[in-house]
């Protein structure tokens, strides 16, 4: 057998367990830092396959490593598994009608159940390859919770777990198949806490100092700030505690969350400082006190250009998932759940990927059946953020995308939750696992490519990973 056939066989041997894990974790649908059953299911399955488990790494109870060592243990290969869900996205599996399993309950609207189970399949297949071929190497699956929350990979990186990892691969469910050429922007988030003085809002308002007023003024100031920042930056906010529900009480306490995004972590830190200054001004105007606590920060993700080319070659050889006519029909049913205006927006977005005549044909059978090529010269950024970026500053890292949903499907939606426990999702997951395995084998076999990737990383990080979080910031378990 050639390497492609070997990888397919190795992953096929794990497929039943991987699919079972994907469905099990999908059913748990646990939110950030609460993924106790999901993490345990993965860890127990890996332990049964001969991996050594370390639970609770980096002071995060639901983070873990699963390690298998063969021979000298070099090279060290990392796989990044995720398994957290999203609030409010409960939905029946594979169902193209909005039908929550639990009204208002959580759901895997980003497909992290597939990431975790897919990385399990890849880790076990790589372990079996090392044993069967009598090869040296170490496989480490990193159990990474809370990607949708304050993250975990930056804490794991700060604790030194990636220092001796030679390269790391992962994947993400998507609507297209590709090694993404663009990076993802950096992000920093904090709780801004205002404290004032309570008073009767009708009888003695002059004696009160409103924390809610301070929050409102912070919002006004930040809105003016938006005109004077780079186009690629973003500022988001949400009220965490507005100070109560009684309008006849001057609110003495209020909390608001802010998140700042920009292409580079240095740009984020500069813009975040300006947001803090706005908060200080709001406190000064209202006679309140302000303190802030940084809760999260992700470095920008930039794929290793050297390894991106290698992973892309593996994807091209393996090809897209093997879709059937039933898969196409189900995908079309899901696509038709979107409104006319949303469908128009989907079409406009896809025009950047397809020629006009190709787009019409693709939307008739709306599952991506090709591989978009990797462009190592790309310097642009998408507007999302991921803690995979921090791994990419610690070791050469690549994240590939594999179709697990219909073309144009909107992320973080009930449709995504349904796809994440469908046959379409499972097919994409197993093909992603095959690509991860083939890419890891090819990387092992080409030390000169890995050496080039390490040189690329040295230019990027100056020789060491620097965490964007201050040392005193701990994982905000129960606080985010």
Record keyword descriptors for this entry.
globular; Aminopeptidase; 480 residues; 2 domains; Alpha-Beta Plaits; 14 helices; 41% helix; 4-stranded antiparallel beta sheet; 7-stranded mixed beta sheet
Task: Please describe the topology of this protein.
Layout: H1 3-28, H2 36-48, E1 52-55, E2 64-70, E3 76-81, H3 112-132, E4 137-143, H4 153-158, E5 167-174, E6 178-179, E7 183-184, E8 186-195, H5 211-225, E9 234-241, E10 253-262, H6 265-286, E11 289-298, H7 305-318, H8 325-335, H9 340-350, H10 356-364, E12 381-382, H11 388-392, E13 397-403, H12 414-419, H13 423-445, H14 447-461
Parallel strand pairs: 3-4, 3-5, 5-13, 7-12
Antiparallel strand pairs: 1-2, 2-4, 6-13, 8-10, 8-11, 9-10
In short, what is this structure?
The chain has helices at residues 3-28, 36-48, 112-132, 153-158, 211-225, 265-286, 305-318, 325-335, 340-350, 356-364, 388-392, 414-419, 423-445, 447-461; strands at 52-55, 64-70, 76-81, 137-143, 167-174, 178-179, 183-184, 186-195, 234-241, 253-262, 289-298, 381-382, 397-403.
Rounded mean pLDDT is 96
N-C termini distance: 49 Å
The CATH H-level homologous superfamily of the largest domain:
Zn peptidases
Q: What's the Cα radius of gyration?
A: 23 Å
Q: Strand percentage, roughly?
A: 15-25%
Q: Indicate the overall shape.
A: globular
Per DSSP, the total helix count is: 14
| Main beta sheet strand tally, sense and closure | 7 strands, mixed
Number of strands: 13
Report on the structure:
- This protein has 480 residues and is an alpha/beta fold.
- The protein has two domains: 3-184 and 300-461, Zn peptidases (Aminopeptidase); 186-297, 2-Layer Sandwich (Alpha-Beta Plaits), CATH 3.30.70.360.
- 41% of the residues lie in helices and 17% in strands.
- The chain is built from 14 helices and 13 strands.
- It has helices spanning 3-28, 36-48, 112-132, 153-158, 211-225, 265-286, 305-318, 325-335, 340-350, 356-364, 388-392, 414-419, 423-445, 447-461, and strands spanning 52-55, 64-70, 76-81, 137-143, 167-174, 178-179, 183-184, 186-195, 234-241, 253-262, 289-298, 381-382, 397-403.
- It has a seven-stranded mixed sheet with strand order 1-2-4-3-5-13-6. The chain has a four-stranded antiparallel sheet with strand order 9-10-8-11.
- Helix 1 runs antiparallel to helix 2 and helix 1 (3-28) runs antiparallel to helix 3.
- The termini are far apart.
């Amino acid at each position: 057998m050639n390497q492609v056939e070997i990888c397919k066989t190795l992953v096929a041997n794990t497929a039943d367990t991987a699919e079972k894990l994907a469905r099990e974790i999908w059913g748990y649908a646990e939110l950030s830092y609460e993924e106790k059953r999901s993490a345990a299911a993965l860890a127990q399955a890996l332990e049964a396959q001969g991996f050594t488990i370390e639970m609770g790494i980096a002071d995060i109870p639901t983070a873990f490593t699963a390690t298998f060592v063969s021979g000298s243990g070099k090279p060290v290969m990392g796989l990044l598994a995720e398994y957290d869900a999203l609030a409010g996205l409960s939905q029946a599996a594979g169902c193209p009608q909005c039908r929550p399993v639990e009204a208002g309950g959580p759901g895997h609207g980003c497909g992290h159940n597939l990431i975790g189970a897919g990385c399990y399949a890849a880790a076990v297949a790589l372990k079996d390859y090392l044993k069967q071929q009598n090869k040296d190497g170490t496989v480490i699956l990193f159990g990474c919770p809370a990607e949708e929350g304050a993250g975990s990979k930056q804490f794991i990186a700060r604790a030194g777990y990636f220092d001796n990892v030679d390269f790391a691969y992962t994947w993400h469910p998507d609507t297209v198949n590709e090694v993404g050429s663009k990076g993802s922007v950096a992000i920093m988030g904090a709780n801004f806490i205002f404290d004032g003085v309570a008073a009767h809002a009708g009888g003695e308002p002059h004696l009160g100092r409103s924390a809610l007023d301070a929050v409102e003024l912070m919002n006004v100031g930040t809105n003016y700030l938006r005109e004077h920042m780079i186009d690629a930056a973003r500022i988001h906010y949400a009220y965490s505690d507005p100070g109560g529900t009684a309008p006849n009480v001057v609110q003495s306490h209020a909390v608001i969350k802010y998140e700042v995004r920009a292409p580079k972590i240095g740009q984020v830190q500069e813009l975040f400082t300006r947001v803090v200054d706005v908060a200080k001004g709001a406190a000064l105007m209202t006679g309140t006190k302000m303190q802030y606590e940084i809760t999260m920060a992700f470095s920008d993700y930039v794929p290793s250009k050297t390894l991106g080319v290698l992973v892309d070659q593996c994807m091209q050889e393996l090809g897209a998932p093997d879709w059937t006519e039933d898969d196409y029909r189900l995908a079309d049913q899901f696509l038709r759940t979107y409104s006319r205006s949303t469908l128009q927006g989907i079409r406009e977005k896809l025009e950047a990927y397809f020629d006009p005549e190709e787009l019409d044909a693709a939307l008739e059978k709306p599952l991506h059946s090709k591989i978009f090529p990797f462009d190592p010269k790309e310097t642009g950024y998408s507007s999302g953020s991921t803690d995979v970026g921090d791994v990419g500053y610690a070791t050469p890292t690549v994240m590939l995308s594999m179709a697990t949903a219909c073309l144009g499907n909107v992320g973080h939606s009930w449709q995504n939750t349904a796809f994440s426990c469908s046959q379409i999702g499972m097919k994409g997951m197993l093909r992603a696992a095959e690509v991860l395995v083939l890419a890891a084998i090819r990387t092992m076999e080409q030390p000169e490519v890995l050496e080039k990737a390490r040189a690329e990383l040295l230019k990027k990080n100056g020789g060491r990973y620097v965490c964007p979080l201050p040392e005193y910031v701990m994982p905000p378990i129960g606080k985010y």
